[in-house]
Amino acid sequence: MDSIHIQGGIALQGKVRIQGSKNAALPVLAATLLTKERSFIRNCPKISDVYAMISLLKSLGCTVSWEEDGVYVDPSRVQCGEMGSEEVTGMRSSLCLLGALIGRCGRVVMEYPGGCVIGKRPIDLHLEALGKMGVSFREQEGRLCAEARRLRGARLRLPFPSVGATENVILAAALAEGETVLEGAALEPEIRALCGYLLSCGAQIEGVDTKRLVIRGGRRLYGSEYRIPADRIVAGTYLFACVGTGGEVFLEEAPWEDMTAVLETAESMGAKLCTEQDGIYLQAPRRPGAVERIQTSPYPGFPTDLQSAALAAAALGNGDSLILETIFENRFRTAEELRKMGAQLEETGTGRMLVHGVESLHGARVEAKELRGGAALVAAGLMARGETVVTGCRFIDRGYENICRDFRELGARVSCGTSRR
Ligand code: EPZ
Fold first, then answer.
1. Does residue 383 contact residue 244 with C-beta atoms inside 8 Å?
2. Annotated catalytic sites, by residue?
3. Are 206 and 214 in contact (CB under 8 A)?
4. Nearest Cα to 125, choosing from 91, 153, 176, 164?
5. What residue ranges define each of the domains in the chain, with the CATH number in brackets?
6. What pLDDT was estimated at residue 177?
7. Cβ(30) – ligand 1 distance below 6 Å
8. Over the stretch 99-132, which tens digit does the pLDDT of each residue have?
9. 305 C-alpha to ligand 1 centroid (Å)
């Protein structure tokens, strides 16, 4: 998908089912490498980041086949060799193959991982933690070579709750000799998903959903069946799109228990919410209220991945809102594009955006520069009067199965196409 054309100004109405979570699926797929048996990963989203992870798994020797409801991964014939470079550099989460392959093979050679251009994104915490588990690293011709003669459990403390570093430690620790105690672990629900899959394979992990994880490694792991939970970020994107269009929607399967900070923000914008067993019902106000402050922070705080979508809704707020980005420094790149639609956004310092709410946005030609910002531009297009064309939509494909289909189900006039240049 290259571009998305939106006829905006229509309040979203109706029901849409929320896809499986990208950020849960990717580490779980990497974790399938820790067994020598076939696993079935249900509700795996059909998105380009997942396809890229699957081609990496195939390049390592896994047999992968899609079924209607998920994907089978058979890692019994994995060859412990070097990984293809193209997929690795294009996707940051290829980094969790590091922990998984160190566990399985004791050695990895890979390109430095890429991903969205949303900040510096160093990997020092990953390297430091794995280093304490007996992994040595060197750089060779721009590639990262990791080796562990004896991978062993360790007592570790993360100075910042990095999601990826927590995942890498869990993956490596599951097959390491002895016990790993990880203090300062990330609390994101995607960590619970990774642990959930590994527990179903026979791993011993204690402290799930806490900052202190204890992993007893070295046990034989078995293939298993695991269902990927629904994507809280996709649900949040649709939720803010609804808030900004004054709509009324039911987000089926939305994991509301993991979305407290997001739901509180939507409520402070005037939305009426009802959480039910199987999703979130939301009724938006005619115009969103301004919010005093939205500050991104590690879970359970407000997710950086939804900052742009919240920014789009706040742009229409009845007054000024303050948005503070504390996780990724480049996450305000969407602001430039929102300004083309009439948003009044004033960057008052690093990571500080003062949003002067306007009564309406107007359609414009805007460019997606990264995944979540791109999805937020589509949401803004729905809120704006007239036609919006969002280009650069390959970024959106990385994480949204079919954003056009989903918004059409909610009554929006949206079409996906090839860009007119
Ligand atoms: C995960 O990225 C997600 N990606 C991101 O979602 C998400 O934005 C991020 O967590 C924060 O919630 C996946 O799960 C695949 P971090 P990750 O390590 O693991 C710094 C999306 O749009 N840091 O928690 O890379 C880092 O610079 C994506 O779906 C170090 O300094 O995030 C950042 O400021 C994009 N050194 C902060 O920690 C390190 O070694 C959070 O990073 C690692 C991280």
1. yes
2. 116
3. yes
4. 164
5. 3-19+230-417 (3.65.10.10), 22-227 (3.65.10.10)
6. 96
7. no
8. 999 999 999 888 776 545 545 668 999 999 999 9
9. 10
